[in-house]
Prior knowledge:
This protein is an alpha/beta fold and about 425 residues long. The chain is built from 18 helices and 14 strands. It binds pyridoxal-5'-phosphate.
Amino acid sequence: MNFASTRTPDHSVALGAAINAGLAPDGGLYVPERLPQLGPDDFEGLTRPAAIAVKLLEPFFAGEPLAGALPEICDEALSFPLPLVATADPRLSVLELFHGPTAAFKDVGARFLAACLDRLDAEPPPTVMVATSGDTGSAVAAACAERRRLKVVVLYPRDGVSPRQEHQLTCWPERVLSLRVNGDFDQCQRLVKEAFLDRALAATMPMTSANSISVGRLLPQMVYYAAASLECWRATGQRANFVVPTGNLGNALAGIWSRRLGLPIGRIALATNANATIPRYLDTGRWAPGETIPTLASAMDVSNPSNMERLRHLFPGIEELAGQISAHAIDDVRIRDAIRRAHRRLDRAVCPHTATAYEVYRTLRETGDERWIMLATAHAAKFEGIVEPLIGTTVAPPPALTKLLERPTRRHDMEPDLDSLKRQLEAWRRFSRH
Ligand SMILES: *Cc1c(COP(=O)(O)O)cnc(C)c1O
């Protein structure tokens, strides 16, 4: 299948090229030319996420040189459990997406993207550039560090990440260049964009983006929606409703695509933090991203979600969009309350991002037997500085996280300008050649 740019529909390329490029040349985002139809019957007998993934993603890989490797790619990328766990509330289950190497759902997309990039023909493969507010950079670094052909440059803001997040951004071999930028996340993101536009740099160092604009991260995120909704459907004959902690809309979009494909999904509710651009848009019809507000759910501190462009492409009118999703903003006071309440009522430690979803679930649940699945996007131990004081007990890090926290770290400091970035890249290239 081909992938078209959201801005120039007749510019379309094969999936491999879309993954390699990241962003379309016109600045648009790649979207599948059509969404195939796949209902529950098509998945009969399939229960393992990797097996569901092959069935689900086959149509998108049709005609693509990577198609033959799809089963391997799915096995390698989905090498950790994605359990749907019952809670003390009979209508609520938690889909735990934090059992991967860096304890956040970003591992799913990052590992799939790395498995694809590693197999593309480009020689050498493009250097993966990623600006991160915390979880993306570590997931991409971890995924690429396993693969000898791949190199990664991670830019993160000096004051925007938790100590454990920083450790996860900087504990990698030399093929991963970790740059601590004396600036904020927006400056990191701007630097990456400038690097892409710099012809001289692109000529010496082909690059690709691993930010959530990459279709190689979005497609595999549909897999856990498929697996969880099928599990619910087979057990109860009901469509599951999902509530999704939302920042850049990558996770939510995968859910919306999955429902469009024909998976048994009911309502999709988005939970944002105080950066309420999406809920405000649905309420007022005005798209008005403001300044980004720092919140406890920092991985969702996004005021201008990049995947809105894909969502608009799918549902151009606001009424149409409002019929597809609801969106609700949860401020820090309610995030704190929700962390405490989840601990009390569900006996679970939830991260601040997951807490926004729990709070939205509480406002939406109705009497009756509608079933809800809440996505748990990160392990609470990644944000222990916030969570532990609220619940009055320690949260043990999962084994994968403990392993990373034992590794030595290395990072370089830089100023937020392109010349500094170029100097860092040059030194790194010279160094890694020996
Ligand atoms: C990235 C992230 C989110 C937001 O996901 P989007 O795809 O950007 O909407 C939510 N929670 C956690 C823990 C994250 O790392």
